[in-house]
Specification:
About 25% of the residues lie in helices and about 25% in strands. The protein has three helices and nine strands. This is Peroxiredoxin.
Length: about 160
């Protein structure tokens, strides 16, 4: 694993000008595009509660997805190192946010369902979720509590 400082660049371009810019709160769309060199663009908006387009990703969804994906990637890495063969992984992650002045996420819950090779150590597979959380760059960057409630099942023959 590479150690040191890593840099990331994205461009977020607002595409919601309906003709008069931000002349009034209701006079513009929240649409934007997230892009980076060599990658597919992500159509973004705000949450529908904040006048956004529900068919587009919002920053809150992306934050939750980042926390879930980071945990998953660390978990897969740690399982590979420990001799646990993960055959399937799906996380039904949830988050709660309060808005208003100083709005923030109050809780993130990861609910990964993991299928491991028959005969692998299920207790170790569960414990590795704690280690993955400790290593997750996104979790380490947030002040929001992140709970992980894994379900580990052996593959059937």
């Amino acid at each position: 694993m590479a150690h040191g400082e890593h840099h990331y660049r994205v461009t977020v371009t607002w595409t919601g000008n309906t003709g008069s810019g931000t002349s009034g709160y209701r006079d513009y769309r929240r649409d934007h595009v997230v892009s980076a060199a060599g990658r597919p663009a992500i159509a973004g908006s705000s949450d529908p509660a904040f006048r956004g387009d529900a068919s587009r990703w919002n920053p809150e969804d992306l934050l939750l997805a980042s926390a879930s994906a980071c945990h998953q990637l660390w978990y897969l890495h740690l399982c590979a190192d420990a001799g646990i063969a993960v055959l399937a992984y799906e996380d039904s992650a949830e988050a709660t946010m309060v808005d208003g002045e100083g709005g923030h996420f109050t809780r993130i819950v990861l609910r990964p369902r993991v299928t491991v090779r028959a005969g692998d150590d299920l207790a170790l597979a569960e414990r590795l979720h704690h280690a993955a959380h400790a290593q997750c760059f996104v979790a380490n960057s947030l002040k929001t509590p992140i709970d992980c409630v894994p379900v580990i099942v052996p593959a059937t023959a």
